[in-house]
Amino acid sequence: MSIITGDKEFFPTVGKIEYEGRDSDNPFAFKWYDADRVVAGKTLKEWLRFSGCYWHTFCGKGHDPFGPGPQRFAWDNYADAKGRATAKMDAAFEFFTKMGLGYYCFHDVDLIDEENSSVEEFGKKLDFITDYAQQKQQASGIKLLWGTANLFSNPRYMNGAGTNPHFPTLARAAAQLKLAIDATIKLGGENYVFWGGREGYVTLLNTNMKQELDNFAQWLHTAKDYARKQGFTGNFFIEPKPMEPTKHQYDFDTATVAHFVNKYGLQDDFKVNIEVNHATLANHTFQHELQVAADNNMLGSIDANRGDYQNAWDTDQFPNNINEAVEAMLVYLEAGGLQGGGVNFDAKTRRESTDMEDIFLGHIGGMDTFARGLIIADEILNKSDYKKLREARYATFQSGQGKAFTEGKLDLAELAKIGIEVGEPEQISGKQELFENIINRYI
Ligand code: XLS
Ligand code: NI
Ligand code: NI
């Protein structure tokens, strides 16, 4: 497999990133991610299915509300959209290959600049760049984890896409959605994602929430029916996020999405793509969201990143919190991993990180954090009392009257009678400190 996928090398100072182990001083080597290491019956590569994202890594230049981004990309030095798009794709596949990422993800508009194109013009541009992507995928073996449509940046979608109160705007969004689904299918995309950045509301005063949610369900059904007719057999993922950009987003968290898909008959086709920083914005932990998804048979995919404890927006930093990773991987392993998805780095280097090699360092850290978390979680599950201690808390439901209760065999009068007989129940410690110390012992 050749490293330089186009005729120009975009990252000449960085070679293929190899596993060198924890004692290596080389910042451009994995300390924990040994792709072929077998843990709990599968290689780390198979468990984690790492993916690079197009938007932060090759499109975002570090802009913030106070000014444009300081990052400069060589692939932007082409006058025309097609030149920029192919150079960007050469850079992207060089990066994915050097990093050892088996997958990538994109929004339609990440692949090629939209530049006020009509639907027909944008469709032609997508045809052009997806032809090129087919060649790049073929040559590198890198696959498309998921595609999606950006239906939130263009000002026309200011009031939403599938939840827009104005039908012509919804239909315009559908034209773009169809192109993105076609592109995903053409490239053998394994999944398709819906993140509803503007699918929500800012004030209830102007909003008919019931109509918007009914429409949103219809929107998803229509998209799913179309994709299935085209032969798409992958999963659809909804990516929960509670807020930002809208004040109140409909896909608030996994529990909200689980209720929504069940209410509207979408549960057989839709799972969730859980993003770490979206979980924390919803005042949940990442592991909480994973557990809710697993318990609802919806644990589809992960957008890996992390937030910042001191603020309340989506900072999308690279993962480096090992405690969080271990707790998350405990849930991940017990759930048997993801259903169809992978671990996609929806993360960006900091605005001030302006060296081209910084994106390698961010991904190395993120991949090492997940790999290390998974290895440690597997040890905890196999060597420690963690599972036994947790089970023991529920032991009284395993037999006798407790079991009869769980099976619905006691009415309230019978239950109350037992409650009177037991008198004041014995105090049972939650033992949180013991559990936390077990985690620390294995890190
Ligand atoms: C934004 C989302 C977005 C989705 C894809 O907060 O994370 O990047 O992953 O539209
Ligand atoms: Ni995301
Ligand atoms: Ni996000």
Question: Brief overview, please?
Answer:
With 443 residues, the chain is of the alpha/beta class. It is 45% helix and 11% strand.
| CATH domain topology of the largest domain | TIM Barrel
Q: What is the CATH C-level name of the largest domain?
A: Alpha Beta
How big a fraction of the residues is strand? 5-15%
Q: What is the count of distinct domains?
A: 2
Q: Structural class, judged by helices and strands?
A: alpha/beta
Number of helices: 16
Which of globular, elongated, flat, extended, rod-shaped describes the shape? globular
Q: What is the strand arrangement across the widest sheet?
A: 5-6-7-8-10-12-13-14
Radius of gyration: 24 Å
CATH architecture of the largest domain: Alpha-Beta Barrel
Which stretches are poorly predicted, pLDDT < 50 over at least 5 residues? 1-5
Average of the residue pLDDT scores: 97
Order of helical and strand elements: EEEEHEHHEHHEHEEHEEHEHHEHEHHHHH
CATH superfamily of the largest domain: Divalent-metal-dependent TIM barrel enzymes
Q: List bound small molecules.
A: D-xylose, nickel (II) ion
What is the number of E strands?
14
Distance between the termini: 36 Å
Largest sheet: 8 strands, parallel, barrel
User: Helix content range of the residues, please?
Assistant: 40-55%
